[in-house]
């Protein structure tokens, strides 16, 4: 057994990030300011989009993007049950009714045919989630959106650096929302970014993100600024700080290298688990793409074992291997079980995955030896509990 506990994820913070944060602390400017502006510009350039709004989190971005839809009571937004609660909770907070469409069994991305089957006259928007960093079939989703005149909001929390048919996620004709939470592919501590090609939408979200002030507040305190301001709407406090952007500026420069390192580990897992019948490895999407490998999420065939998934994770912890759970399906949470009243058998692929999925350690600082320890521990737990 491994001597030292291997966590499921650790952020990769280098001297560059540390020095940049110290520079901000010494500069007298720690909240939204020039570094946020620089990070916004660098992020736009990286994904290839004309407008970006840096925010306190991806949840804030989802909230504002959904509020911009101006939903009326009863309006429906279709998304996947295989996501973090924020995706669905922000539909509720935005005044909409969340509708869950089942996932594809292999990639665990939302099934576009299932989305189509859920469309009604009340449907206003589609929110695909690029699960684990693999792109959804955006051509199909855009075709569906055109046919029924729907807005597409991409939950791109897993997809910083993901590419779909040669295009970066963020560059497509939609609204994309990225997360920089510490377990995501790059981090600003907490943080998020909304990216769009729609100038009017970017302005609306910018206004909502900071009290509804009619211009970038930080400029008020510059030599050229004036202290007066106008409130144009009752806004939120969702701005990103320079302290956060200080991290993001250097993380973004390292992103492609991070993805290469994640890919090496994921490939090692895929090869090692190909010969373990109790482990179902994640399937690749059938079109050209770059997987950002935010997560490595195999399914454990609990029907072949005497223990359930939670006990499987507990036993891996006993072997000094940390795991994550991404995700228990949305409709298995008490609030959404009561709200959505999903019938048994309505989302069979999500139910199946929800009870078997776990996230194995995957982060750039991991060594190949660490990954081999994970494989060995998984095999040990399987051998101990085989039916
Ligand atoms: C992490 C995550 C979010 C929320 O991101 P935050 O930046 O923590 O608000 C939203 N959707 C998905 C799919 C996520 O994994």
Strand order of the largest sheet: 1-9-8-5-4-2-3
Strand content: 5-15%
Q: Regions with pLDDT < 50 over 5+ consecutive residues? A: none
Hetero groups in this structure are: pyridoxal-5'-phosphate
Backbone CA Rg: 21 Å
Give the fraction of residues assigned to helices: 25-40%
Mean pLDDT: 96
- Tell me the distance between the termini: 23 Å
Query: Regarding CATH, which class of the largest domain?
Result: Alpha Beta
**Would you identify the CATH architecture of the largest domain?**
3-Layer(aba) Sandwich
The DSSP helix count reads: 12
In the CATH hierarchy, what is the superfamily of the largest domain? Type I PLP-dependent aspartate aminotransferase-like (Major domain)
Largest sheet: 7 strands, mixed
Q: Which structural class should the secondary elements be placed in?
A: alpha/beta
Topology-level CATH name of the largest domain: Aspartate Aminotransferase, domain 2
What is the domain total for the residues? 2
Protein name: Spore coat protein
Family: Belongs to the DegT/DnrJ/EryC1 family.
GO molecular function: pyridoxal phosphate binding; transaminase activity
Pfam families: DegT_DnrJ_EryC1
